[in-house]
Amino acid sequence: MYQNREEGDIMANQERQCYLYICPNYPRCCRAKGRGCSLERDEEQEKLWIQEEECNEENGYPFFVEDTRTKRYRRPE
């Protein structure tokens, strides 16, 4: 699958998903996946979910990847 452990870790990090709606970076992050509540959960997918203690203000949001595709609305001045 992966040539070495480091490559596997990098690929796994690229596949990580975020469902931390309370995060201030959530609307601008490429890893943000959920947009609402879901009762169905896939245990395999849950392994890829970023946990709050992994990505927060104290540790500098290491999983944050800015989504440059989103355009933020600005009110006309």
Can you characterise this structure?
The protein is an all-alpha fold and 77 residues long. It has two helices and no strands. It has helices at residues 5-15, 43-46. Residues 1-8 have low confidence and may be disordered.
Tell the overall outline.
Answer: globular
Beta content: under 5%
Helices, by number, come to: 2
Mean pLDDT: 77
Distance between the termini: 53 Å
Helix content: 10-25%
Helix/strand-derived class? mainly alpha
DSSP E strands, number: 0
Stretches where pLDDT falls below 50 for ≥5 residues? 1-8
SSE ordering: HH
List keywords for this structure.
single chain; 77 residues; mainly alpha; 19% helix; disordered N terminus
